[in-house]
Amino acid sequence: MPSKPKPIRVALAGQPNAGKTSIFNGLTGAHQNVANYSGVTVEKRQGHYDHEGRRHVLLDLPGTYSLSSFSQEERVAQDELISNRPDVTVVVVDSTTLERSLIFLAQIMQLGANPVLVLNMADEARRAGQRLDLEQMQALLGFPVVETVGHRAEGMARLKEAIASAAARHITSSRLVLGEQLDAALAAVTAALDGADQDEPGRAWTAVKLLMADSLFVDRVRAAGEPGERAIEEARRQRQRLEADTGLDIALFVSERYFGFVDGLLKEVTRSASREDARALSDKIDRVLTNRVLGIPFFLLAMFSVFWLTFTIGEIPMAWIEAGFKALGQWVASFWPVGSHSPLRSLLVDGVIAGVGGVLVFLPNILLLFLGLAFLEDTGYMARAAFLVDSVMHRFGLHGKSFLPMMSGFGCSIPGIMSTRILENERDRLTTMLVLPLMSCGARLPIWMLLIPAFFSPPWRAPVLWFVYAFGILLALVLARLLRRSLLKGEEAPFVMELPPYRLPTLRGTMTKMLERSWVYARKAGTIILAVSLLLWFATSYPKPSSYEVDERIKAGKVRVIQVRHPEASSPKKRAAREAAALAAARASAPKGTLVISPAEAENMRRAEALRGSVAGHVGRAMEPFIRPLGFDWKIGTSLVGAFAAKEVFVSQMGIVYSLGEVNEQSMSLKATLARDYSPLVGISLILFLLIATPCMATVAITRRESGTWKWALLQFFGLTLIAYIISLLVYQVGSLLL
Questions:
Q1: Which of 19, 388, 431, 590 has the most beta carbons within 10 angstroms of its beta carbon?
Q2: Stronger pLDDT, 110 or 393, i.e. the higher one
């Protein structure tokens, strides 16, 4: 039986905003997975497809503007192409900006990486009047060139054919012409690399990096011993000669040669130049949306609209899920007799269903929030927002690029902190990393969806949510300013960033982003939150009291329990009204000092006693003297401890603490119970504390990993918690005096 052919390894490379992700999705479909590169936190997206009976394994390299050694993404992409050398490298460029995009192709050609050029967004370039001679372009470059429209998956069949053709031919020689002076210098350094560098296909790239004195490559070549030293010395001589002959810094000279190659190539293959700049429409829109006067109000309005939709549309499916979990709890509880104290029943109803269900009920809101943010990202608007706030950010000691990780933090602090790697300056990175947890992440949204409706009427809910997010941003800016004036003093780096043209987002791309981010939230409900809910259920359920004070009072006649008989045909509303009337009548006729309650109320009193004597009750009561000045009691304190594991756990823990007797039609919702037990002032104090304090344990861990030391992670944790305590204390105490 013939052996199965070896899979073809394909790397997908390109600059940000070139549509690389849409090409990856178009080639692989659903056959993809996401992990991290070994030893770093850069995301590694892999997938596969079959073509002509051969498996093609596709690796989506991090998006980079060049193959330098500055950022982690650039080093990872460079090392992957040099060390693991794929069979084919697909280079995706934006057809509307070829003058800039093809510089990256020139670097890939020097690597000898067997490229295939993908001219993506070809439809936009054609509409702008651009016509290219693809046959001539292929002849000049010596490898396949394919036009695609990634967001519509157009050109995928031709691209698969081109990849198969490139894999069969495996071209490693480069037709890159960089001018007589630079070509001669590179030839001399390449010859000197004999015996010092065994990577024959990528030797031209190594020569370029030695010529530019890239420390990463210098150290790598020096490790070869005497041959390596000879190559480094030759590169130094050639660099000095070129700088003396041209009067230019070597980096500028090499960049000019790359631009010269691209300019010459485009002159040869362009048959019809653009009648109108492909970005003309974007420029017209930017005159309004990035206007100094109108830009910021429009941005605030856009974010407010996302929050308003999150509340209004999310309320409907949220009610369905809430009703579903309530029905599930009733159904599970029905397997035990009324009033049963079975530990298994309590575990399932109060632990699993109340804990996990209390978090999953907010999944529609999470989906809508991520949908809105994904839409703004995919249109290209978020990049404009970064420019809008750049001047403001600099006033507070933050880099303009810091805006993008901070916006990622609205989804989750972890990828936001990881994405601070786009900042070249270490002080900028640390400052952004330390204040980023103040961006209200998706894990906090269930908390806001619980607390805001509990304490604010419908017209105020969207404005309050907008205020919560805005306050987090404002506080982050203030703290960043303090950090840059004290612990992280230093010069600020200039802000240079590409503005991609506006584009209509594709349904597939936007939905993929929304579902990927939401799946992280849902997965936590089935793993971390389930585990913590079970732990907290145990802490709130044990040890069991040997007797209950309410039962002793019943025996002594100080408490009287009355049971109201309901006809089976009675509706829930009629039964509730009849029970309320019976209780009112019994209380009116009861002797003075006698408390009249229903069986459900008696059960709630037993549960409250049990909770006070449980492990969680002891922890909460131990915390109470410290949190009472904030308006919090031991129940809130217990839930705050759980929130350190994951912010969403606060909601599930409050649900467990307030599991009120039998699950029936008369049970109050958690929102109604909180509104009954706490004032709106306590609600505001609690919202501010949860916004600022105690980053979750995963955030602390990733801060330690990205900063390289526990010092910054612990400063973030204890510093934000102390600030949260002070602000909540001031709000509650001043508010109490005024109100």
A1: 431
A2: 110
**Nearest in space to 22 (alpha carbons), one of 622, 445, 511:** 511
Contact present, 514 and 370 (Cβ < 8 Å): yes
Q: Which residue from 563, 564, 560, 569 is spatially nearest to 592, judged by alpha carbons?
A: 560
Answer yes or no: are the C-beta atoms of 579 and 502 closer than 8 Å. Answer: no
Give CA–CA dist 317/430, Å, rounded: 40
The predicted structure's pLDDT at residue 617:
78
591 preceded by a cis bond (ω within 30 of 0): no
Q: Which percentage of the chain shows pLDDT scores above 90?
A: 12
Give the integer Cα–Cα distance in Å for 367 and 387: 27
Beta-strand relationship, 145-147 and 32-36: unpaired
Collapsing DSSP to helix, strand or coil, 271 comes out as strand
Task: Give me the pLDDT at residue 450, please.
Answer: 86
Identify the CATH homologous superfamily for domain 8-169.
P-loop containing nucleotide triphosphate hydrolases (3.40.50.300)
User: What CA–CA distance (Å, rounded) separates 266 from 101?
Assistant: 12
Question: Ramachandran region of residue 490, left (φ > 0), alpha (ψ -120 to 50) or beta?
Answer: left
Mean pLDDT on 196-210 = 73
Question: Long-range contacts for 686-689 (Cβ within 8 Å, ≥24 apart)?
Answer: 686/451, 686/630, 686/631, 686/632, 686/636, 686/728, 687/447, 687/448, 687/451, 687/452, 687/468, 688/471, 688/724, 688/727, 688/728, 688/731, 689/630, 689/632, 689/640, 689/724, 689/725, 689/727, 689/728
Angle at 320 between CA 315 and CA 323, to 5 degrees: 120
Q: Is 170 exposed, middle or buried (0-12, 13-18, 19+ CB in 10 A)?
A: exposed
Model confidence at 1, pLDDT cuts 50, 70, 90, reads: very low
Contact call for residues 55 and 47 (beta carbons, < 8 A)? no
Residue pair 217/204 in contact (Cβ under 8 Å)? The answer is no
Alpha-carbon torsion 195, 200, 203, 206, what sign? Answer: negative
**Which amino acid appears at position 201 of this protein?**
P
- Of all residues in the chain, what percent are helix, strand and coil, respectively (each to 5)? 65, 10, 25
Distance (Å, whole) CA 431 – CA 632? 31
Q: What is the mean pLDDT of residues 683-689?
A: 94
**Beta sheet of 8-14, edge-to-edge order:** 32-36, 43-51, 54-60, 8-14, 88-94, 115-120, 145-147
Average pLDDT over residues 545-561: 82
169: tokens are 């031919």
- Residue partners of 704: CB distance under 8 A and separation at least 6: 710, 712, 713
DSSP string, 148-205: -BGGGTBTHHHHHHHHHHHHHH----------HHHHHHHHHHHHHTTTT---STTHHH
DSSP 39-79: TS--EEEEEEEEETTEEEEEEEPPP-SS--SSSHHHHHHHH
Q: Three-class SS of residue 667?
A: coil
User: What span, in angstroms and rounded, lies between the C-alpha atoms of 259 and 266?
Assistant: 11
Residue 429's nearest CA partner among 474, 397, 383, 451 is 397
What is the tens place of the pLDDT at every residue in 164-185? 988 888 765 667 777 778 888 8
Predicted structure pTM score: 0.54
Higher pLDDT, 524 or 615: 615
Distance CA 232, CA 217 (A): 10
DSSP 11: E
28-42, 107-121, 517-531: which has the minimum mean pLDDT? 28-42
> Average pLDDT for residues 560-565, to the nearest whole number?
75
Helix (H, G, I), strand (E, B) or coil at 476: helix
- Running DSSP on this structure, what letter comes out for residue 146? E
Q: How far apart, in whole angstroms, are the C-alpha atoms of residue 729 and residue 736?
A: 10
**550 contacts 602 by C-beta, under 8 angstroms:** yes
SS3 33: strand
Every domain of the chain and the residues it spans:
8-169, 180-247
Q: How far apart are CA 470 and CA 305, in angstroms?
A: 14
Helix residue ranges, H only, 527-648: 528-541, 549-555, 572-589, 599-613, 615-627, 634-643
The position carrying tokens 């000691």 is 397
Strand partners of residue 54:
51
